[in-house]
Structure formats: structure tokens, C-alpha cells
Write a structure and sequence with these properties.
single chain, 160 residues, alpha+beta, Alpha-D-Glucose-1,6-Bisphosphate, Chain A, domain 4, eight-stranded antiparallel beta sheet, 5 helices
């Protein structure tokens, strides 16, 4: 299994508070709600400048609107694969670790969220593991590393 790790992010909240927010995936529903907010989309448009087109923003909004959240999972239909991908919590170790597994994917993958208390609040690191053959790994490795980092940034910016 190939592993991709984010840099350590600092979250200015206790690790118990961060854990409680992230261990219940229904709390991530706010991402879906924010994506539907025109003021938030305008803010993203201003921040991104010419890096993100209106078409890409509309596509992201559509994807977020299709997401379903429960306490233990986040699901999104993927038309290209003809299936729904579900990220399900498989283990919780309060207040320091949340392990998740990707279901419905042709490629086995998992996600670990590690939390550690620090003076400022909490240090967080994401690790993604995926079973990729050599050719696929060479094609997607850069995007996977970038995606893990962006997901960690997004989780670090959430209100706790």
C-alpha cells in the first residue's frame, strides 16, 4: 500500500474538540451547505483568481450537493465509475485517531486522521493509503499528494 501524508497542521482548538467534530462525519454537512452559499462561492472565486473557472466551481457545487453525510460515512455518486463512493469510519480512538476506509472503489484506499495536543491546540496530520500499481501510481501520485494536502488544509480551517 502506498502512503501519502499531509504536513502537520495546527488547529486552534483542543484535540478532544477537534476529535468530536471529525469523528462524527455528519458534522461535515457544513461543507455541503457552504458550497451552496453564493457569498462563499464569490469568496472562493476572489481567492482563487484565474486558477478556478466558473465551470469548475459549478461542477464542485454540483458534487457537494450530491454528497450524503451520516455519523459514520460520507457518500458521493461517481457517474464515471457507475457507483457511489463511501468513506466509512472503521475505527475511532478518542481523542487521537480516526481511521476510515473507501468503499465502492475499484482501488482499495484508507484515510487516517491523527490528532495530537500541542500548546496552540491540536496538531493534525492526514495519511492516505492506496493500493496502486506502478503505472497508475506514476500517473496520479502528484495529484494524490496535492489532494491530501488540500484536504488537510480544509479540515484545519473548519470552525471547531
Amino acid at each position: 500500500m502506498n502512503k501519502y501524508e499531509s504536513n502537520v497542521k495546527t488547529i486552534y482548538a483542543t484535540n478532544l474538540r477537534v476529535y468530536e467534530k471529525l469523528a462524527d462525519l455528519s458534522n461535515l454537512q457544513t461543507i455541503k451547505e457552504r458550497a451552496a452559499d453564493p457569498m462563499f462561492v464569490d469568496h472562493i472565486r476572489q481567492q482563487a483568481g484565474d486558477k478556478v473557472s466558473d465551470e469548475q466551481l459549478t461542477m464542485l457545487q454540483d458534487k457537494f450537493s450530491q454528497m450524503e453525510f451520516t455519523t459514520d460515512s460520507v457518500s458521493i455518486p461517481v457517474e464515471q465509475l457507475g457507483t457511489t463512493l463511501t468513506l466509512s469510519v472503521i475505527e475511532r480512538e478518542e481523542p487521537k485517531l480516526i481511521k476510515m476506509e473507501l468503499q465502492g472503489s475499484p482501488i482499495p484506499a484508507n484515510l487516517w486522521i491523527q490528532l495530537l495536543p500541542c500548546e496552540e491546540g491540536t496538531h493534525m496530520k492526514l495519511t492516505v493509503g492506496a493500493e496502486l500499481n506502478f503505472f497508475i501510481r506514476k500517473m496520479v501520485e502528484g495529484k494524490l499528494k496535492d489532494g491530501v494536502e488540500k484536504l488537510a488544509d480544509m479540515l484545519a480551517m473548519m470552525p471547531y
